[in-house]
Amino acid sequence: MQRHLQLDKLYKSTRSARDFQKDVIKAAEAFTAIGYKYMETGTKFSEECCRYGTENSENINENILAKAVAIYGDGRKHVEKEQDDLIKLLSQQVLDPLRAMSAGAPLEDARHLAQRYSRMRQETEAVAADISRRQARIREAPIPENVAKLHVAEAKMQELKANMAVLGKEAAAALVAVEAQQQRLTLQRLVAMMVSEKQRKESAPPVIVPENGTDKTIYYLAEAMHPFFASSEKELSFCR
């Protein structure tokens, strides 16, 4: 009974972990699909920005919009490159390992051993019930035929118990190994996913150097949320 409870617990645990791995896979696949769509849109937009900046490059120092758009388009390319790197990392470090394990042979083999043990246990229970019936018959009619059949049933029971002990130990060892691997691998993949996202967010945007290397003009594009009226010549007034 103790072995049965252990295997039942391990079976449920590995099934739950496998289902969670599949949930992580689905989420990562969704992130990847959305990321590629986002990247496709961003790349197209960056190309349009660069094209506009190139087409209006004459007197670009005086054309504030063309210069700002060209800078933004170039920066957008770097952003999409980082997005592409993140998606590839997500696939290599999260999707591929979890897919391999959730459908891998060790998990299926361990679960098959547990299922075989469960079927053998049911057979043992049936033989035990048969032995009880034959013992009752012997008490009613202790003839050699009934005694012989009881001995056959008891011998079968001993064989089943011996096989169950071996199979139960083998199934438990396999499930324990799979459970530990599931826990370790899933945690590692989740950490890898969080680290990748953290690094992407913390990565500094590229520094864009003007082509002539001497232009020190800086432009700011902002929206005034509240009106402000200058009180001196060194201040600017803002209106919504």
* Outline type: rod-shaped
- End-to-end gap: 76 Å
Question: Helical region count?
Answer: 4
Instruction: Report the sheet with the most strands, covering strand number, pairing sense and barrel closure.
Output: none
- Tell me the strand percentage band: under 5%
- Say which CATH homologous superfamily is assigned: Arfaptin homology (AH) domain/BAR domain
Helix content: over 70%
Give the strand tally. 0
- CATH structural class: Mainly Alpha
Return the CATH architecture.
Up-down Bundle
Given helix and strand content, the structural type is: mainly alpha
SSE string, helices as H and strands as E:
HHHH
Arithmetic mean of pLDDT: 83
Low-confidence stretches: none
Keywords, separated by commas or semicolons:
AH/BAR_dom_sf, Substrate Binding Domain Of Dnak, Chain:A, Domain 2, 4 helices, 240 residues
Describe the structure in your own words.
This protein is mainly alpha-helical. The protein has a single domain (2-202), classed as Arfaptin homology (AH) domain/BAR domain (Substrate Binding Domain Of Dnak, Chain:A, Domain 2, Up-down Bundle). 78% of the residues lie in helices and 0% in strands. Helix 1 (2-55) packs parallel to helix 4 and helix 2 (64-102) runs antiparallel to helix 4. It is rod-shaped. It starts with a helix and ends in a 38-residue tail after the last helix. The model has no long low-confidence stretch (mean pLDDT 83).
